[in-house]
Inverse folding.
């Protein structure tokens, strides 16, 4: 367990999984392990927010296991023209843009390249908001919010999501991720209230996918189907309300 001197936020991990790879069978097992670490939130008024795409698969498991309300927080990295896996910034669901100026200073990108990347990413985020949330208002955030992704490499995309949630009035953010690089968590620690991450890793080389035995990117239609299935399966619970419901919004 690590602490931040500024905020006293804590990182909860599983020592037996530190610096190991292939520790989760898939995102479902990762979600189940995280749910066991988040047991104190069971049946509470906490809100689970999944980050599309992969984070939604993990978030749904947490919400189901702990009988919690779930929704999504859409954010997307602004990728390089020649490498769609690497980003130099991110766009959040509220349209806010956060650029990684330290990284940008080392790149040979023109102002036009940057502007086109921002515009392209804004369009992607807007499309996902419309596809996954429609016209529903964002849920109220004056309660604990469990922000979920399937892993953290640089952490910049999640920093953008956290900033947008704070602007929207969120007072307490609990970050829940199956795997992360220790250095990235150090940058995020003072921005949230607690972090749950069973598989902490260090070293110069890191890939989120290495934490999983079975890994693949999820397409938008798959995420939509996951949310749709969650909706159908949650109608009988008072707590685990539909992600398409207007209740408690």
């Amino acid at each position: 367990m690590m602490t931040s001197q500024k905020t006293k936020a804590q990182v909860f991990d599983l020592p037996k999984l530190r610096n190991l790879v292939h520790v989760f069978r898939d995102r479902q097992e990762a979600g189940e392990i995280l749910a066991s670490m988040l047991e104190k939130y069971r049946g509470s008024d906490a809100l689970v927010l999944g980050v599309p795409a992969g984070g939604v698969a993990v978030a749904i498991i947490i919400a189901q296991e702990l009988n919690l309300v779930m929704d999504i927080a859409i954010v997307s990295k602004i990728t390089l023209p020649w490498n769609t896996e690497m980003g130099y910034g991110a766009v959040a669901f509220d349209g806010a843009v956060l650029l990684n100026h330290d990284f940008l200073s080392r790149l040979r990108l023109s102002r036009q390249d940057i502007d086109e990347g921002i515009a392209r990413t804004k369009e992607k985020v807007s499309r996902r908001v419309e596809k996954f949330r429609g016209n529903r208002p964002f849920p109220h955030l004056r309660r604990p919010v469990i922000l979920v992704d399937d892993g953290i490499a640089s952490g910049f995309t999640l920093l953008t999501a956290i900033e947008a949630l704070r602007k929207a009035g969120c007072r307490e953010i609990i970050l829940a991720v199956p795997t992360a690089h220790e250095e990235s968590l150090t940058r995020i620690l003072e921005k949230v209230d607690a972090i749950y991450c069973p598989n902490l890793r260090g070293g110069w080389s890191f890939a989120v996918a290495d934490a999983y035995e079975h890994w693949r990117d999820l397409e938008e239609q798959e995420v939509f189907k996951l949310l749709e299935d969650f909706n159908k399966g949650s109608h009988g619970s008072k707590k685990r309300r539909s992600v398409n419901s207007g209740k408690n919004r």
In short: The CA atoms of residues 45 and 121 lie 32 Å apart. The radius of gyration is 17 Å. The longest strand covers residues 83-92. The chain is about 35% helix and 20% strand.
